[in-house]
UniProtKB/TrEMBL annotation:
<dbReference type="InterPro" id="IPR001709">
    <property type="entry name" value="Flavoprot_Pyr_Nucl_cyt_Rdtase"/>
</dbReference>
<dbReference type="GO" id="GO:0051536">
    <property type="term" value="F:iron-sulfur cluster binding"/>
</dbReference>
<dbReference type="InterPro" id="IPR036010">
    <property type="entry name" value="2Fe-2S_ferredoxin-like_sf"/>
</dbReference>
<dbReference type="GO" id="GO:0016491">
    <property type="term" value="F:oxidoreductase activity"/>
</dbReference>
<dbReference type="InterPro" id="IPR017927">
    <property type="entry name" value="FAD-bd_FR_type"/>
</dbReference>
<dbReference type="InterPro" id="IPR001433">
    <property type="entry name" value="OxRdtase_FAD/NAD-bd"/>
</dbReference>
<dbReference type="Pfam" id="PF00175">
    <property type="entry name" value="NAD_binding_1"/>
</dbReference>
<dbReference type="InterPro" id="IPR039261">
    <property type="entry name" value="FNR_nucleotide-bd"/>
</dbReference>
<protein>
    <recommendedName>
        <fullName>2-polyprenylphenol hydroxylase and related flavodoxin oxidoreductases / CDP-6-deoxy-delta-3,4-glucoseen reductase-like</fullName>
    </recommendedName>
</protein>
<dbReference type="InterPro" id="IPR012675">
    <property type="entry name" value="Beta-grasp_dom_sf"/>
</dbReference>
<dbReference type="InterPro" id="IPR017938">
    <property type="entry name" value="Riboflavin_synthase-like_b-brl"/>
</dbReference>
<dbReference type="InterPro" id="IPR001041">
    <property type="entry name" value="2Fe-2S_ferredoxin-type"/>
</dbReference>
<dbReference type="InterPro" id="IPR008333">
    <property type="entry name" value="Cbr1-like_FAD-bd_dom"/>
</dbReference>
<dbReference type="InterPro" id="IPR050415">
    <property type="entry name" value="MRET"/>
</dbReference>
<dbReference type="Pfam" id="PF00970">
    <property type="entry name" value="FAD_binding_6"/>
</dbReference>
<feature type="domain" description="FAD-binding FR-type">
    <location>
        <begin position="79"/>
        <end position="177"/>
    </location>
</feature>
<feature type="domain" description="2Fe-2S ferredoxin-type">
    <location>
        <begin position="1"/>
        <end position="80"/>
    </location>
</feature>
Length: 319
């Protein structure tokens, strides 16, 4: 099938109505993986892939713009997905579930990364890891029930403790590495965007991070502050950690600030030169906060983002 000028492999496949998993179209979610036969894949189309997939000539279809004929084949599930067992399910709020998985093989990951889960129907969604690899072999995920969400409803209603589930990853570029323990960190999250931030905070504290760690967690209504007690307790025991609960809707919650988390955070922190910034949650918030953090002095390389629009992974193109 012919590609038009400036068209990626993914765009070409979709235009020809070929069924392929995809989401972000920018190389982050890694769900559009396919394999090339006898083609020299440019490095950018394999960015972030594990070595075993690079060797097998896997690439991200959204990042490859072919300059000559290319033969491709679908990914082999066993190359990408592994199995984990559900060990526990716990409600953190009426619409937020804490899911615990025990992988068959221990998963190595950076705090702040995410994994892709696959349902028994082949639906794939991404969820951020909330715990740290060094403290447990169990994976902790925070999952919000979405209206008409096939994957989230399946996890809430059908997936049971003891069941096996397939997962892919971990992946993602929004993570913490302890190269400067004195560096102050500002973390802003909305909704279950708290999960990767919680992983980052837990790991930073465990590694003896000495710089200031400031978290703003925002939601519209009080039930969305689903880890409020845990974070208040953590702030009371860790001297350099500060937690701000933020409510943008009607504020009837003692101790919460009124307003959007990003607005409150960046109004308070007007000078971010030398800071590391983590932004997780609603994509519009992230785009705005990323620009404002840069204008406040944060280096672009020190602003790490995880927009949750990338979690809308679908097996088939929506009509």
């Amino acid at each position: 099938m012919p590609c038009t000028d400036g068209e990626s492999v993914l765009e070409c496949l979709l235009r020809h109505k070929i069924d392929i998993s995809y989401s972000c179209k920018m190389g982050t979610c890694q769900t559009c993986l396919v394999r090339a036969e006898n083609y020299d894949i440019p490095a950018n189309a394999q960015f972030g892939l594990p070595k075993n997939l690079v060797i097998q000539n896997y690439f991200l279809a959204c990042l490859l713009y072919p300059e000559s004929n290319i033969d491709i084949s679908a990914s082999i599930p066993s190359d990408l997905f592994r199995f984990a067992t559900v060990t526990n399910k716990k409600y953190l709020a009426d619409d937020i579930l804490q899911l615990f998985l025990e992988p068959v093989e221990k998963l190595q990951y950076y705090s702040g990364q995410f994994i892709n889960l696959k349902s028994e129907y082949g639906i794939v969604r991404s969820y951020s890891l909330a715990n740290t690899a060094e403290n447990s072999d169990i994976l902790e995920l925070h999952i919000k029930r979405m209206r008409n969400g096939k994957m989230s409803n399946w996890i809430f209603d059908d997936l049971q403790v003891g069941d096996e589930i397939e997962y892919q990853g971990a992946t993602g570029n929004c993570f913490y590495i302890e190269h400067n323990l004195e560096q102050p960190m500002l973390l802003i999250g909305t909704g279950t965007g708290l999960a990767p931030l919680l992983s980052i905070i837990r790991y930073a504290i465990s590694r003896g991070h000495r710089g200031e760690i400031v978290l703003y967690h925002g939601t519209r209504h009080p039930p969305g502050l689903y880890q409020n007690d845990l974070l208040i307790e953590l702030a009371s025991t860790v001297e350099n950690f500060t937690y701000h609960a933020c409510l943008s809707g009607k504020n009837e919650f003692t101790g919460a600030l009124h307003g959007r988390a990003s607005d409150l955070a960046l109004l308070k922190h007007k000078e971010l030169t030398g800071w590391k910034v983590f932004l997780c949650g609603e994509p519009e918030m992230i785009k705005d906060a990323q620009q404002r953090s840069y204008l406040a002095g944060a280096n672009l390389d020190e602003i790490h983002t995880d927009p949750y629009v990338l979690r809308d992974l679908r097996r088939r193109r929506r009509k």
